[in-house]
Design goal:
heterodimer; A: 332 residues; alpha/beta; Rossmann fold; seven-stranded mixed sheet; two-stranded antiparallel ribbon; 12 helices; globular; B: 66 residues; mainly beta; Ubiquitin-like (UB roll); five-stranded mixed sheet; 7 strands
Amino acid sequence: MRCQRCTETAAVEIRRHHTAFCNAHFIEFFDRQVQRAIDDEHMFTRDDRVLVAVSGGKDSLALWDVLRRLAYPVTGLYINLGIGEYSEESYRKTAAYAEAHGAALLVADIPGEYGMSVEEFARATRRVSCSACGLSKRYLFNRVAVEHGFTVVATGHNLDDEAAVLFGNLLHWQVEYLARQSPVLPSTHPRLARKVKPLYRIAEREAAAYAIISGIDYIVEECPNSIGAKSLLYKEALNLLEQATPGTKQGLYWGFLERGRPLVEAQDTAVLRDCIHCGQPTTSEVCAFCRMTERAAERMRVRRAGAAAAVAQTSAPAETGAPLAVVPPVGE
Amino acid sequence: MKVLIRHQKREVDVRGRRRVREVLVELGVNPESVLVIREAQLLTHDTQLGDDDVIELRPVVSGGTA
């Protein structure tokens, strides 16, 4: 198979576009798709300060890389979730990228700040791990962005991620979630950064291809907690359809954005106010993250108190109101 | 040829000349879910492979909730 732009051997076939590219022309294709996403959806300009959520995986490192090459002023944010060797390895990959490219990186440390990992949050509050993890990440992305003067938070969600979320929301007719699913979530509160997904036009396979062609060393192994996650099942189902009918995922998600979302967006009636504990935007008196961390700290306190009448080493609840400790280890 | 199936942490031998897509079908791998790499170069599904080739099937699907 030949590149459709030149005579070189093709490296990546993109069946939904009936095309194939060599390495160099694939990177051009990737850049065009990301630039178009940013421009068409008015995600940000070069005057915005953009915080890129980086996990050490292919999507977030590819996003960080492409935004840097497109000359956007971006800073990476890595969150240590405290998931053992997986977190250590993902941090090594992230820090190595930052160091090799002179890219600015901030690091937030959940166990360091809250005294326990996201897995312990999940166990203590009887949530599934992915739920505690997702809640923690969304909270910290926004909090770090606002406390450090970033107007935009960019995440590496790709077309497959968005199609799988949409598929799950449709299966359960989660109309409120459907109303909020968008490549851009505007700031609707003074302490809420705009959330953007510049890879929403890029398939997961293409994000991985970009990382490999660009020589980006990313963590290939999956988070151990994601085994059995519903999102993987939805992706598998969609990939079966995609294999038989190229363009299925794009048709589902882009079709939703064009024709489905206008029908449901009025259902998003959430009114935000300040969390009375941390001041972050929330729909209730105390935000979901503070509720989770406080419940987890309380359970740990009870467990430790019950263990013995020994020295009470109770874990302090999350400090409220004070800025989150964030370290710039490299590049700043 | 040697096929390293990265996500299953196993290596298999496949005998005889085949195209990439035929190898994937034989191993029951959905082509949408992997990239195929030979000597650090990505291969399209029509690429002809021989007995001396060593290829990696790199999973591209990641999960969980972001």
